[in-house]
């Protein structure tokens, strides 16, 4: 397959001013008529004689006319993935008619059917599976879409923009025309048709525009749409208040579909959502599910400006819209809920999944230089690290200048397809700050490592922090230039109070020294020393407050330092971080002991620190739950030189058991104190209470006492919400109470078999079970009615639930987990290449394991490689990981 390079970017030779589409939806096939009003691009130097359009091999071409003249076969040729018309004038109207087969579309790109509904997914390059087109984001066109279909089977027919005409046709059919006044790239096109029901609300923008808000779903799900609607309204208000962004059409629609490759899609005025990101009800949705709905609804809404009004010039710029929009949605969620909890959750995700990606064979900068298949670049790096890079700009500029920068970016580039460089330039121009050095974040992959040391000179009352930075090599980038890194720090005195520090930036701009408790140190060099004067005693540094940069930071904290920071740091994030560091330190030394066959003895400090936290009723319960949760196996793996899955799993369980036994009384009383049978509400305080309660329950079962199993079973049966019943189910199943587990798994399924999203949770609880025998259970579940290989949500729950969330079983030493995954990737390669290539990820990380496992993992990658014709998606990931 061809490699596409950013350096080869060229402006399009032709533009499409108007796109008129007509879809005839029939049972076995769909006819697509496209009328494109085109002209040469005045900005293009070359003047090619002919025109090349993108178009998938599977398009069945019926006819082409150029300025109403029928072309014959000597006027054009089919290309491997397109169509070439040999000669075209400077301006012309091109009409094509093709036949496509949505029912056979298992890749879920282009037009396909999901449980009887027609829907589309055009990002990144799905539109070329619908018709011949210039399917690239810098070709923006005004669209008009007519849909014709059987009236009783498809009473609702939607597309972007506003409905302008509708009518009945022969044979019980009807039609509708939608017009979208905003020029857009083809990736934002959408069509939906089916027997959909909806809820409706209304929003008046700050500028006085009345917007109809509609959320569509299958009839049975109509009662699960209110939370998404409220989230949408909150997001619309927030974007006006925080970014000054208003909605720009009279209608905003969301449609829920069951078969979807990702979470949701921001098509102009017509978002298509995975049901898992829009449906929510207390009975069927966990707290995490509610928060996901809120976050994804907001994310897609925010794209209306950061993505749609201002879009990407080419797909290398993907992080321009995704990184910025993730930053925006994270800030929204922080404002709606607890800011610290949201930050902790984001950082935990970044440090496990994104750091691992940055250390793996697919590592790439947030502005990649090349790709084979763009779908492989919807990554943690583009999204999450991209958001961290925007956050660092926010930190460096301050909220006010950042807002000026975003206002300038939106006004300067409204209606354009631009680059990450344009974004950074707008930030520079609005703030007056020079971000030249900061741009390294866009071009260099890898996670920087900061080594921090300090010295205190009592005589001169001077404290010095020396920070060195390095960054490991990544594919194609052996050496790295230093990054510009904002390191937010505080210094604590022996009472745990923040020392007052001078705000360096304020001094430069106002000549007045302002006193702050958190100072942003700006690291530019490989090694830099920062000096603090007037410091009376050796302070304890609180480093990288709020996780001010996506880096790994090492400082020789003692365990006493960490327990001190856990209870005194004024930065909530760093209080949690101190607990994590303490946990990591203790777990890592026990892992070493375990590997050296030494007896495991748990340092008392951890239980003592946890006891203090459990006793402090003034603390936010959500943060207590986070602090009490030991570093995950995934995080411990990420930190390990060589990942020993069995040692990590065994030691973490040992520590959980010890803590549970030592803190049983406190855990039980906290569990009871957090029990309340109010009607369910997904507000921050109630979520916090349930989170803490379920963390305590998890520990209590680790004591292996029957009475606590009874507690969990009672919770399972009596819970009035999915969070508590699913937590109880998960804990009982994963704690190895096999008999009880079988009974309640069966009860759970019988109760929820009619709710696909709940059944997905049921699959994933079983797939991620660390107990022995899980793989055969997963194989059996693949034959269950509840499973469908063509539905990505099922594949993610069951197959990825096993391969990505069940390290001990996936890495079994008989290679059974590896073989199983390779088999599924080979099958999915034909059915759904995007899902196949995402699924293969755990195998690609083979370098992190011992030689025995490395060999077995590589053998399965090779087996995939040799299995026949690979999709570009799977080929890229597998070949890069074997390189
Ligand atoms: N912008 C959307 C990306 C997306 C996507 C990409 C590839 C294949 C399927 C897809 N579905 C959605 C999602 C977002 O970030 O908002
Ligand atoms: Zn997005």
UniProtKB/TrEMBL annotation:
Chain ranges of the Peptidase M1 alanyl aminopeptidase Ig-like fold domain: 446-555
Cofactor(s) needed: Zn(2+)
Span of domain Peptidase M1 alanyl aminopeptidase C-terminal: 560-883
Record key words, sorted: Aminopeptidase, Hydrolase, Metal-binding, Metalloprotease, Protease, Zinc
UniProt EC number: 3.4.11.2
Lipid metabolism is among the record's keywords: no
Listed GO biological process terms: proteolysis
Ranges for domain Peptidase M1 membrane alanine aminopeptidase: 227-440
A UniProt-annotated Pfam family: DUF3458_C
Stated role: Aminopeptidase N is involved in the degradation of intracellular peptides generated by protein breakdown during normal growth as well as in response to nutrient starvation.
Entry similarity comment: Belongs to the peptidase M1 family.
Protein name as it appears in the record: Aminopeptidase N
Source organism (scientific name): Neptunomonas qingdaonensis
Lineage of origin: Bacteria, Pseudomonadati, Pseudomonadota, Gammaproteobacteria, Oceanospirillales
């Amino acid at each position: 397959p061809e490699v596409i390079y950013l350096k080869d970017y060229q402006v399009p030779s032709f533009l499409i001013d108007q796109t008129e589409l007509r879809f005839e939806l029939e049972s076995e096939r769909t006819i697509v008529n496209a009328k494109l009003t085109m002209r040469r691009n005045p900005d293009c130097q070359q003047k090619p004689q002919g025109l090349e359009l993108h178009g998938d091999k599977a398009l069945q071409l019926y006819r082409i006319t150029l300025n109403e003249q029928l072309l014959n076969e000597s006027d054009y040729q089919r290309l491997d993935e397109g169509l070439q018309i040999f000669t075209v004038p400077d301006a012309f109207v091109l009409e094509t008619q093709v036949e496509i087969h949505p029912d056979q579309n298992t890749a879920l790109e282009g037009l396909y059917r999901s449980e009887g509904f027609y829907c589309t997914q055009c990002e990144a390059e799905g539109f070329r599976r619908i018709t011949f087109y210039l399917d690239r984001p810098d070709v923006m066109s005004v669209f008009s879409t007519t849909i014709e279909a059987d009236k009783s089977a498809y009473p609702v027919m939607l597309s972007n923009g506003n409905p302008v005409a509708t009518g009945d046709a022969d044979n019980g059919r009807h039609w509708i025309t939608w017009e979208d006044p905003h020029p857009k790239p083809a990736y934002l096109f959408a069509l939906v048709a089916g027997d959909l029901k909806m809820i409706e609300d209304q929003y008046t923008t700050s500028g006085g525009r009345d917007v109809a808000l509609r959320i569509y779903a299958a009839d049975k799900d109509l009662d699960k749409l209110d939370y998404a609607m409220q989230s949408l309204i909150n997001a619309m208000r927030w974007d006006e208040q925080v970014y000054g962004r208003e909605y720009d059409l009279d209608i905003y629609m969301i449609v829920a579909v069951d078969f979807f490759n990702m979470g949701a899609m921001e098509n102009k005025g017509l978002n298509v959502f995975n049901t898992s990101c829009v449906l929510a009800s207390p009975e069927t949705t966990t707290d995490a599910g509610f928060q996901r709905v809120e976050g994804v609804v907001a994310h897609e809404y925010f794209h209306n400006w950061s993505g749609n009004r201002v879009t990407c010039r080419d797909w290398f710029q993907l992080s321009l819209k995704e990184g910025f929009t993730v930053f925006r949605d994270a800030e929204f969620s922080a404002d709606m809920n607890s800011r610290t909890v949201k930050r902790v959750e984001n950082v935990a995700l970044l440090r496990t999944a994104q750091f691992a990606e940055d250390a793996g064979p697919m590592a790439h900068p947030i502005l990649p230089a090349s790709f084979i298949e763009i779908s492989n670049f919807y990554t943690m790096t583009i999204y999450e690290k991209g958001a961290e890079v925007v956050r660092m700009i926010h930190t460096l500029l301050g909220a006010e200048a950042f807002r000026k920068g975003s206002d300038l970016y939106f006004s300067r580039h409204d209606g354009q397809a631009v680059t990450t460089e344009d974004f950074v330039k707008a930030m520079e121009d609005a703030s007056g700050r020079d971000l030249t050095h900061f741009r390294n974040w866009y071009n260099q992959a890898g996670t920087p490592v900061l080594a921090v040391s300090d010295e205190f000179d009592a005589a001169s009352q001077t404290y010095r922090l020396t920070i060195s930075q390095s960054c490991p090599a990544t594919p194609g980038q052996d050496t790295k230039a230093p990054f510009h890194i904002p390191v937010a720090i505080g210094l604590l005195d022996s009472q745990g109070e923040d020392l007052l520090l001078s705000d360096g930036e304020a001094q430069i701009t106002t000549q007045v020294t302002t006193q702050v408790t958190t100072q942003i140190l700006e690291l530019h060099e490989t090694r830099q020393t920062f000096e603090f004067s007037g410091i009376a005693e050796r302070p304890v540094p609180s480093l990288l407050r709020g996780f001010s940069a996506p880096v790994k930071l090492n400082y020789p904290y003692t365990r006493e330092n960490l327990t001190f920071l856990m209870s005194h740091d004024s930065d909530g994030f760093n209080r949690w971080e101190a607990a994590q560091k303490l946990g990591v330190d203790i777990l890592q030394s026990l892992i070493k002991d375990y590997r050296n066959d030494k007896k495991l003895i748990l340092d008392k400090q951890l239980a003592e620190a946890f006891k203090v936290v459990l006793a402090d009723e003034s603390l936010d319960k959500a943060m207590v739950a986070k602090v009490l949760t030991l570093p995950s196996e995934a995080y411990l793996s990420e930190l390990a030189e060589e990942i020993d899955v069995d040692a990590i799993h065994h030691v973490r369980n040992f520590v959980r058991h010890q803590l549970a036994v030592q803190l049983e009384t406190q855990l039980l009383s906290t569990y009871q104190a957090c029990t309340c049978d109010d009607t369910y509400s997904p507000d921050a305080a109630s979520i916090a209470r349930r989170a803490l309660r379920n963390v305590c329950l998890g520990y209590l079962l680790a004591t292996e006492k029957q009475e606590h199993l009874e507690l969990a079973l009672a919770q399972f049966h009596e819970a009035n919400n999915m969070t508590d019943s699913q937590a109880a189910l998960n804990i009982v199943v994963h704690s190895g109470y096999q008999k009880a587990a079988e009974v309640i798994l069966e009860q759970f399924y019988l109760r929820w078999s009619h709710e696909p999203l709940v059944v997905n949770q049921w699959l994933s609880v079983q797939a991620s079970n660390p107990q022995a025998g899980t793989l055969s259970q997963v194989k059996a579940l693949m034959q269950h009615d509840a499973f469908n290989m063509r539905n990505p949500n099922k594949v993610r729950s069951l197959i990825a639930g096993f391969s990505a969330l069940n390290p001990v079983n996936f890495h079994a030493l008989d290679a059974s987990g590896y073989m199983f995954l390779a088999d599924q990737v080979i099958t999915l390669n034909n059915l759904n290449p995007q899902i196949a290539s995402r699924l293969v990820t755990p195998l690609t990380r083979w370098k992190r394991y011992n030689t025995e496992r490395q060999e077995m993992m590589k053998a399965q990658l090779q087996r995939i490689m040799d299995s026949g014709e690979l999709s570009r998606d799977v080929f890229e990931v597998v070949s890069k990981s074997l390189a």
